[in-house]
């Protein structure tokens, strides 16, 4: 029996801004089990990063508001209702960075420009472990080395502006796993990395995941990246999960028209085909859409699709799809 | 592109460009020595050409881009720019004040959009700023330009009043692209401009860039680690290794027939959705320390063809001719054994 670690139960959430209200997350129902690896894929703006920030409450409340559902974190076997806690209270702080850790999409958004890499790392490590300063420093350098940061001992003393884009991303990765989290959200962890280092870094994240029995949620727009890395994939579209299943189910026998289009749009270097971008563009998140979120771009659209939101239906072997025609 | 490059004047000529960071480190760092981030780089970019710059993390790509546009002052070398008015000027020796009149002709798209977009300005202010700096004051004109540009990159005019933090990563990257394009520049340094974007937005942006390139007669230095994007967009490509250029070739011939062992290894390392194996082992070993580069050919410790000479002699960037569809084309490679390895 797999043990539950984090549950999103029918989450609906909005941003309320001067432009209006957006339905950023819709009926998100997702369970992350201990030690599992899950890929979250989908186009820009579909809600991937917001989903990752929700359980550690790193969203601008009250502009961001959860209007339905619960998020449950299973803390040492005790269910903890994340949304009932205070946003920056003691309980959340115990989880954030220690139990649930995050590698952010844009390294500079979470690295301080005025502190050295080392001082940022020891602060984090000392906050969440019993190590003293000397131990924390050695641990930090060890983690930098594991994340393939070249000249780790020197980089420890560097400021982040002195590092290349790819080095910053590796520093983020070292920080993200330095306190042995039980769950790691890696938000586009390799977009700034070239293929050779990307392969090494993904290998490293996978190693750490296995060694520490850490659960991994890998967020990416690059299906080739998740193909190698995760057991399961959830495909997001406009704040909905439209399909979820094992990596094989999603990549080899996708059922949702959006997933199919997404796979067809991947450019490859080894074949000489040109890109097949998905037709149309993502609708304005402020417009009120009725029916299936994908119907405007879908080849199989019927009258029903325009009127009703399709339910998230479980097909054979736990393959879940939100489509009337699947 | 290449066939006319021999008889057209270039737009930008980078000559012996060098950017050494000295690590005296002051009170805060124990680091000593010199990081040769860019160490004698030469290439030319022609009008209406997209020149790709590829290579592993830390090899100096961003530093080249920043040094060309004088975001940092290079330690040596020349960056000759042929201006709109027909002047031939060297950015390296010019002061910021002298450069100001040319600022709207050359623009940069940054690798990390988060750190380059001011958090205190709305998107409208961010987009209008380069036009203001160029002397435009008419409010309606500024607004119309901002609206047009934001739509071109697939965002909406209602987004103009938002602040950068209220966007997703991919949306922020598109704001950076809109800001660079708004002054209708002649030359753009695009540093990993589309790497953070998913395929469908990426395809859309690449199309926009290709379209504007022809419409506005633009040239690009297109820095990217994503070889499939480079293959799609670039006319010619330069491959960098540890602060130097090791190969330059028209895109098609580079991909079909690399003339440098490093380029060859780089192409083999590309992951493919149909292959579940992570192919990290092909380009084994680390990119060496830029503060302490290997002697001879900097690639020799990772090169499967390396011989004794490679450990001692620095290979020069030499010219070769190749043919594509009967047309002669010019290529460059910095390997001692191009002739033997590739039958040239
Ligand atoms: N602070 C905010 N205020 C208003 N809207 C926001 C805010 N943060 C995010 N959004 C909106 O919420 C939606 C989801 O954003 P999110 O960052 O989760 O996208 P994403 O799937 O991670 O996209 P990307 O691949 O581009 O990073 C987007 O439309 C974004 O504009
Ligand atoms: N301001 C600086 N001070 C000291 N060293 C620097 C500075 N800027 C860059 N470097 C060093 O120069 C080298 C080249 O960095 P650069 O950012 O140009 O790499 P890059 O090829 O763009 O890599 P990436 O693909 O990771 O972005 C790196 O070793 C980096 O640490
Ligand atoms: S010069 Fe020698 S080491 Fe360098 S690429 Fe050529 S064969 Fe390899
Ligand atoms: Mg995101
Ligand atoms: Mg860079």
Secondary structure blueprint with pairings:
The complex is a heterodimer of chains A (326) and B (344).
Chain A: E1 4-17, E2 20-33, E3 37-41, H1 48-53, E4 64-75, E5 78-81, H2 90-95, E6 100-103, H3 117-128, H4 133-146, H5 152-155, H6 165-177, E7 183-187, H7 195-211, E8 215-220, H8 223-229, E9 232-237, E10 240-246, H9 247-252, H10 257-264, H11 303-307, E11 313-314, E12 320-321
Parallel strand pairs in A: 3-8, 3-9, 6-7, 7-8
Antiparallel strand pairs in A: 1-2, 1-4, 4-5, 9-10, 10-12, 11-12
Helix pairs in contact in A: 3-4, 4-6
Chain B: H1 2-5, E1 12-22, E2 34-45, E3 50-54, H2 61-68, E4 76-82, E5 88-90, H3 96-99, E6 106-109, H4 113-116, H5 123-133, H6 139-152, H7 169-181, E7 187-191, H8 199-215, E8 219-223, H9 227-233, E9 236-241, E10 244-250, H10 251-256, H11 261-268, H12 308-312, E11 318-324, E12 327-333, H13 338-342
What's the CATH class label of the largest domain in chain A? Alpha Beta
The interface involving the most residues is between:
A-B, 66 and 69 residues
Structural category of chain A: alpha/beta
Architecture of the largest domain in chain A, CATH level 2?
Answer: 3-Layer(aba) Sandwich
Total number of strands of chain B: 12
CATH topology of the largest domain in chain A: Rossmann fold
**What count of helical segments of chain B does DSSP give?**
13
Would you mind describing this structure in some detail?
The complex is a heterodimer of chains A (326) and B (344). Chain A has eleven helices and twelve strands. By secondary structure, chain A is an alpha/beta fold. In chain A, strands 6-7-8-3-9-10-12-11 form an eight-stranded mixed sheet. In chain A, strand 9 and strand 10 form a beta hairpin. Chain A is globular, with a radius of gyration of 20 Å. Chain B has 344 residues and is an alpha/beta fold. Chain B has an eight-stranded mixed sheet with strand order 6-7-8-3-9-10-12-11, with helices on both faces. In chain B, strands 2-1-4-5 form a four-stranded antiparallel sheet. In chain B, strand 11 and strand 12 form a beta hairpin. The two termini of chain B are 23 Å apart. The chains are: A alpha/beta (326), B alpha/beta (344). Chains A and B meet through helix 6, helix 7 and helix 8 of A and helix 4, helix 7, helix 8 and helix 9 of B. Iron/sulfur cluster binds next to loops of chain B.
């Amino acid at each position: 029996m797999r043990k539950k670690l984090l549950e999103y139960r029918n989450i609906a959430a909005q941003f309320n801004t001067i432009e209006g209200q957006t339905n950023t997350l819709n009926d998100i129902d997702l369970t992350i089990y201990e030690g599992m690896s899950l890929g979250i894929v989908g186009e820009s703006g579909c809600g991937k990063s917001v989903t990752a920030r929700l359980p550690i409450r790193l969203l601008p409340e009250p502009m961001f508001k959860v209007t339905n559902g619960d998020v449950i974190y299973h803390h040492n076997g005790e269910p903890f209702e994340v949304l009932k806690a205070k946003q920056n209270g003691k309980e959340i702080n115990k989880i954030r960075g220690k139990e649930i850790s995050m590698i952010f999409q844009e390294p500079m958004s979470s690295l301080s420009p005025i502190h050295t890499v080392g001082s940022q790392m020891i602060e984090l490590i000392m906050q969440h472990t019993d190590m003293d300063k000397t131990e924390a420093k050695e641990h930090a350098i060890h983690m930098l080395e594991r994340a393939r940061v070249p000249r780790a001992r020197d980089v420890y003393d560097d400021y982040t502006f002195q590092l290349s884009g790819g080095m910053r991303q590796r520093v983020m990765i070292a920080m993200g796993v330095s306190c042995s989290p039980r769950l790691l959200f890696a938000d586009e962890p390799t977009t700034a990395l070239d293929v050779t280092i990307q392969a090494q870094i993904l290998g490293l994240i996978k190693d750490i995941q296995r060694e520490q029995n850490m659960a991994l949620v890998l967020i990416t727009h690059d299906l080739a990246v998740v193909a190698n890395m995760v057991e399961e994939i959830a495909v997001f579209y406009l704040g909905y999960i439209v399909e979820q299943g094992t990596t094989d189910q999603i990549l080899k026998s996708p059922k949702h028209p959006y997933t199919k289009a997404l796979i067809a749009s991947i450019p490859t270097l080894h074949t000489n085909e040109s890109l097949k971008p998905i037709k149309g563009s993502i609708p304005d998140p402020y417009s009120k859409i009725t029916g299936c979120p994908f119907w405007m771009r879908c080849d199989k659209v019927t009258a029903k699709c325009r009127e009703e939101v399709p339910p998230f239906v479980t097909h054979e072997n736990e393959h879940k799809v939100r489509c009337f025609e699947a | 592109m290449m066939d006319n490059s021999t008889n057209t004047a270039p737009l930008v000529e980078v000559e012996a460009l060098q950017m050494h960071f000295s690590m005296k480190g002051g009170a805060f760092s124990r680091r000593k020595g010199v990081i040769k981030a860019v160490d004698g780089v030469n290439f030319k970019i022609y009008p209406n050409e997209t020149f790709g710059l590829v290579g592993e993390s830390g090899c100096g790509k961003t530093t080249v881009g920043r040094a060309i546009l004088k975001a940092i002052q290079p330690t040596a070398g020349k960056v000759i720019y042929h201006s709109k008015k027909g002047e031939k000027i060297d950015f390296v020796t010019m002061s910021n004040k002298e450069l100001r009149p040319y600022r709207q002709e050359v623009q940069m798209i940054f690798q990390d959009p988060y750190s380059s977009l001011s958090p205190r300005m709305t998107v409208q202010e961010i987009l209008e700023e380069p036009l203001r700096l160029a002397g435009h004051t008419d409010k309606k004109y500024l607004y119309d330009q901002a609206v047009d540009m934001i739509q071109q990159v697939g965002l909406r005019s209602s987004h103009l009043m938002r602040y950068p933090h209220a966007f997703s990563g991919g949306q922020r990257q598109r704001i950076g692209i809109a800001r660079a394009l708004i002054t209708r520049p002649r030359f753009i340094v695009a540093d990993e401009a589309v790497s953070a974007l998913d395929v469908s937005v990426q395809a859309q942006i690449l199309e926009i860039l290709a379209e504007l390139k022809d419409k506005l007669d633009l040239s690009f230095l297109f820095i990217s680690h994503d070889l499939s994007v480079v293959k799609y967009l670039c006319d010619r490509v330069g491959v960098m290794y540890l602060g130097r250029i090791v190969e330059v070739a028209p895109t098609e011939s580079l991909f079909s027939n690399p003339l440098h062992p490093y380029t060859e290894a780089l192409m083999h390392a590309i992951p493919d959705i149909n292959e579940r194996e992570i192919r990290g082992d092909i380009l084994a070993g680390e990119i060496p320390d830029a503060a302490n580069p290997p002697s001879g050919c900097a690639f020799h410790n990772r090169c499967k063809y390396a011989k004794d000479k490679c450990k001692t002699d620095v290979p020069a960037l030499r010219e070769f001719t190749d043919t594509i569809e009967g047309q002669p084309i010019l290529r460059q490679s910095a390997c001692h054994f191009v002739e033997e390895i590739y039958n040239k």
